[in-house]
Every structure is written in structure tokens, then in C-alpha cells.
Amino acid sequence: MRLTSQVVITAQMGKTIEDLEKLRTNESIVEIITPACVGDTAQEDTFTQPFVHRHITDKVSFSVSDAKLAIEKAYMASDEQTIIVLADKAFTPLVQNKLLKVIEEPPKNKIFILVTESKSTVLDTIKSRLPITVLSETNVEEVLALDIGQLSLSSVYDFVQEHKRTDAKAMTILVERIVKEVIASKKYNLDDKTLNLFSNSYTALDMGSPPQFVLNALLLKLLARKKR
Predict the structure, then answer these.
(1) Range of the domain at 191
(2) Are residues 201 and 95 part of one domain?
(3) Where are the alpha helices (DSSP H) in the chain?
(4) The model scores a pTM over 0.90
């Protein structure tokens, strides 16, 4: 792993960020990261190491306002090289699209490193502009208590009821796992309409829609997209 523009896929978010900090020589590092990506001792707007400036997001997920902050940091004039590290378990499509232009044409001496848990949630437009670095640690996921291949109205109802108290952060991760299962099952029409369902779910959660409502809408619409 090097301090070059890239997307880093890792199960150990905090450790990976620390490892990136240790690679620093004479660069400055700006970190905009979600609370789940750091330990209990991390504090907002503090230096984790000399010349490493850390900002922890107000929300559990990276928001459009956080993306705007990253863009502002990128356009701050500086003769020294600045590494901008952005970290979230799953960046929403809305956030990625907001960052796309500055990633595609970064200002002088600015390098973007995105740190996240799953390659499947990274948009193709981002993948085409940043190389992907997948770290070797194993990310063991709990088995999804829903048979996506045999989705039905009754199983949707039961699953939604089971997750009626799931918060937005956990629901974002759950939606990501559902996306993986849908793709792996090969039992759904993966056209633009289906892909938009996933994108719209992330956007709705990012904008504050009730997590249970988002989950219910996603599963019911997926049911209609199932191959007959």
C-alpha cells in the first residue's frame, strides 16, 4: 500500500487508516472519516500524528456536506503534497457522484484515497478513475437471515419486522449485503431499473428516510424484478 490515489478495500478500517498515516514522509494528510472507522480515543479536529488533520463526520454515514468539505480541502492552495483520506463503510452513490469531478481532475499536489469495506458499493465511474487496492484480511459477514433467491411477500414482511429498529448506519450495511446476495443469486434482472433501486436506497438512507421504510421499499421492488 502506498500514498497514491486509490480506493482501498479493507475490513479493518481503523488499522488501515493508521497504516496510511505511518507511510507519510513529508506530505500533509487530511482525514474525513465516519465514527465507525476509528477507535473510541479519536476526536474531531485533532492531530493523530504531526501533520495529520482528522475530521470525524457528524453523521454515522458520509454525507454530501462531508463530500463538500473534502472538495474545499482539495482546493486549498498549498505547495506541499496533501493526501486526502475519506473513509466510510459504504459510500452512497450520491456522495461518490459529488466527489467524481474532483477525483477525476484533482487540484495540484492533491491525492485522494477512499477507504471502504466493499468493492461492490464503489461506482464504476470511480473504479474507472482510481485503482482498487484490496487488502488481504478476511471480512467475515454474518449470514443474511433472508433467502434472496426465494424472496416472497411473507419473507419480506418477516424480515422487515425483524429489522424495524435497525438504525440508518446498520441498514446501509444490510442493504449492501442484500445487493451482494441479489447479484450472486442470478435470479434477478440486473438492468438499469434494478441497479437504480440499490442507488436510491443508499440515497434515501443518506437523506434521513426511515430505515424500515427503505428496506421494505427495496425488497418489494426487488420482488417485482425477480426472474419468472
Answers:
(1) 148-225
(2) no
(3) 13-22, 64-74, 93-104, 124-127, 153-162, 168-185, 192-206, 211-225
(4) no
